Amino acid sequence: MPFAVSSPNYPTNPTEPIKPISPIKPIKPIEPIKPIKPKRIMNKINQLFATRGDRKLLSLYFCAGYPTLDSTGDVIKTMQKRGIDFIEVGIPFSDPLADGPVIQSAATQALKNGMSVQLLFEQLKAIKDEATIPLILMGYLNPILHYGIEPFCQSCVDAGVSGMIIPDLPFDDYLNIVKPVADRYDLRVIMLITPETSDERIRFIDDHTDGFIYMVSSAAITGAQKNFDDAKQDYFRRINAMNLRNPRMIGFGISNAQTLKAAQDNAAGAIIGSKFVTLLNENEGNADAALDKLFEALKS
Question: Which of 82, 252, 290, 300: disulfide with 280, CB 3.0–4.6 Å?
C-alpha cells in the first residue's frame, strides 16, 4: 500500500501543485524580568508620628542594666504592655554631663552591675521580635566612638533599634560623620534644643534631621520639677509658633499632671526620665509597680 502524506500543503491528487509553505513568523524576544525592589519599611519613629493623629505621645527613659543587670528586656516589654509609645534606653556612662543625680546614680550602678554597649545590644536582640514599639538609644559620644560608629549603627539595626540620641554630639560632627552612616542604616539621630538655642539654629536643626526634635524644657540637667515657670512656658510657645517641619517632644522635669499638660499642650507629647528611674528603684525593679506609681503621679 503506498505511503500517504497527510498535510494541508500536500495535495491528495498527485497532479495538483504543491502549496507553498507559509513563512515562519519570527519569535518575539522575551522581555527580561524586571527585578522586584524590596519594599522599604518606614522607620518606626516616623511611622509612630505619622499615624498618631491628635493623640499625645508618652515616652519613658530608663538606664539599661539598672537596677539589675538583666532587667532591660523585662522593663521594655512591661512598658510596651502598659501603653508607652516609645522608649529611650540609656547607655550608662561614667561622666553623664546632661544628667542629674538620679540618672547619674543609675548609670553608676548599671556599670557596676556589668552593663556594656555590647551586652545591651545582646539583650535587645533577644527581645527583638517582641518589642514592636520604637526603641531609641540615648548615650554619650565616647562609648559610641569606642564601639565604632558603623558597627554601632549595624548593631542597632540587628537589635531592632530605630534611632539614637547623643546629647554631646557636636552638630557639625553629626552632619559630616554620624548622619551619613546613620542614613545608610535608616536610623534617626534625634537632636536636642534648649531655651538658649537660637531660632536660626533651631531651623537649621529642623532642616537637617528627621523623626522628631527633643525639646529640653530648660538648660539645666535632668530631674523632676513641680511646675514650669513663665519663662519655660514662653519658650514652649515660641517654639510652637515656629511651625517646624519635625514634631517635637518635651523632656526634662516632667513628673506630675501640671508639667505633663504643659508639655502636651505645646508639643506632640512628653518624655519622662528621672521620675520613672526613681520609681523603678523604689519598687526594686518591678516595672509594673513603678508604672502604677508613675501614672498615679501624672494625675496629681
Answer: 290
First to last CA, the chain: 111
- Encode burial over 217-253: b for 16+ CB neighbours within 10 A, e otherwise: bbeebbbbbeebeeebeebbeebeeeebebbbbbbbb
List of residues 6+ apart from 131 with CB closer than 8 A: 76, 77, 80, 124, 160
Our answer to whether residue 99 is catalytic in this structure is: yes
Question: What is d(CA 150, CA 148) in angstroms, rounded to the nearest whole number?
Answer: 6
Q: Indicate if 200 belongs to the active site.
A: no
Q: How do the pLDDT tens digits run along the chain, 300 residues long? A: 555 555 555 555 556 565 565 666 666 666 666 665 555 689 999 999 999 999 999 999 999 999 999 999 999 999 999 999 999 999 999 887 767 889 999 999 999 999 999 999 999 999 999 999 999 999 999 999 999 999 999 999 999 999 999 999 999 999 999 999 999 999 999 999 999 999 999 999 999 999 999 999 876 555 445 668 889 989 999 999 999 999 999 999 899 999 999 999 999 999 999 999 999 999 999 999 999 999 999 998
CB count within 10 Å of CB 213 equals 24
- 289's CB contacts (< 8 A; 6+ apart) are 279, 283
The pTM of this model reads 0.84
From the list 16, 70, 95, 99, the catalytic residue is: 99
Task: Give the CA dihedral 283, 288, 291, 293, nearest 10 degrees.
Answer: -50
Q: Are 100 and 54 in contact (CB under 8 A)?
A: no
Single out the catalytic residue among 88, 95, 129, 207.
88
Beta-carbon-side half-sphere exposure of residue 97 (alpha carbons within 13 Å): 8
- In degrees and rounded to multiples of 5, residue 22 shows phi and psi of -65, 140
